[in-house]
UniProtKB/TrEMBL annotation:
Pfam families: NAD_binding_7. Its EC number is 1.3.1.76. Keywords: NAD, Oxidoreductase, Porphyrin biosynthesis. It catalyses: precorrin-2 + NAD(+) = sirohydrochlorin + NADH + 2 H(+). One of its GO terms (molecular function) is precorrin-2 dehydrogenase activity. InterPro entries: Met8-like (IPR028161), NAD(P)-bd_dom_sf (IPR036291), SirC_C (IPR042518), Sirohaem_synthase_N (IPR006367). It comes from the Bacteria. Pathway: Porphyrin-containing compound metabolism; siroheme biosynthesis; sirohydrochlorin from precorrin-2: step 1/1. This is precorrin-2 dehydrogenase. It comes from Paenibacillus monticola. It is an enzyme of class 1 (oxidoreductase). NCBIfam families: cysG_Nterm.
Length: 226
């Protein structure tokens, strides 16, 4: 679970597989640079919305949204493209190019994903299910990428939209408890009790109402002691 916000992630290739990797990265608010002579229509549209499509030396992307940024360098990979990256994706359809990208990234100590032969890289991309602050990553270790997609669909049914609100509640309460309680023993007790509340079911049944500051005070006072 890497925090990619604002981090420069470099994707070599602009085909359908690169598109999938780029979409996943943009959801993490990463700063994505795609290097490819061409792009899929969707990537092309995103490059227009989230950055600049140009072929010059100027490397300055324009910030347009909070949902990550996308810069397109209209050319083939050249050695040196991995320099300074946080993550690298070798997503071209040319095995030898992907191999060279992987070699460069590895020599710089940068994690690299290779879409054509995963074993040449240092990480693989899992299927990802998000519900607000909840992230579930599903991997089959390369045994069946489409099975990872199917398992994700199964989990989408079990882990409904209610988790988003539930985790917002937990986040808020956890922040409050950490702010108010200096004693680690008390804090630990309160945080454990937080996990035993029936809030998730209340959200599902539509009976949950936001806890007011006064209600939070009362709950903390009632649960501070054993
Ligand atoms: C090893 C890995 C490396 C990596 O890319 O990181 C890899 C490799 C390969 N995938 C191939 C094919 C397909 N991959 C998908 C789909 C996904 N592939 C993803 C990940 C991974 N794919 C990594 C392992 C993850 C794991 O298993 O844990 C997912 C989970 C995440 C994502 O890409 O975002 C995403 C589903 C997301 C979702 O549905 O939510 C589909 C289905 C489709 O396109 O609809 C097909 C066609 C059907 C089929 O072949 O099964 C081929 C064969 C190429 C060839 O034909 O030669 C290779 C190459 C090889 O096997 O070496
Ligand atoms: N990991 C995965 O999930 C999957 C991986 N694959 C593998 O991924 C490869 C790519 O698949 P697609 O995106 O469907 O291919 P594609 O043919 O749609 O796209 C390939 C992209 O790479 C670019 N490219 C080629 N040479 C380049 C270079 N020297 N520098 C920069 N960019 C370059 C092309 O211009 C094109 O944009 C396939 O060859 C296959 O081996 C295929 C399916 C799924």
């Amino acid at each position: 679970m890497l925090d990619c916000e604002g981090q420069r992630c470099v994707v070599i290739g602009g085909g359908i597989v690169a598109e999938r990797k780029v979409l996943g990265l943009l959801e993490t608010s990463a700063e994505v640079t795609v290097i490819s002579p061409d792009l899929t229509p969707r990537l092309s549209e995103l490059a227009e919305k989230l950055g600049t499509g140009y072929s010059g030396e100027n490397d300055e992307p324009i910030e347009l949204t909070k949902q990550g940024r996308l810069t397109w360098l209209t050319r083939c990979y050249v050695p040196g493209d991995a320099r300074g990256a946080f993550l690298v994706y070798a997503a071209s359809n040319d095995r030898a190019v992907n191999e060279a990208v992987a070699h460069e990234a590895r020599s710089l100590g940068i994690p690299v994903n290779v879409v054509s032969h995963a074993e040449a890289g240092s990480f693989i991309t899992p299927g990802v299910l998000r519900r607000g602050r909840l992230t579930v990553a599903i991997s089959t270790s390369g045994a069946g990428p489409s099975a990872a997609g199917q398992i994700k669909s199964l989990l989408e049914e079990v882990l409904g939209a209610e988790y988003e609100l539930y985790l917002e509640f937990l986040h808020k309460m956890r922040t409050e408890i950490k702010l108010r309680e200096a004693a680690s023993e008390v804090r630990g007790r309160l945080l454990s009790k937080l996990g035993t509340l029936d809030v998730l079911n209340e959200i599902r049944q539509g009976t949950f109402t936001e806890w007011t500051p006064e209600f939070i005070d009362g709950w903390i006072a009632a649960n501070r002691e054993r």
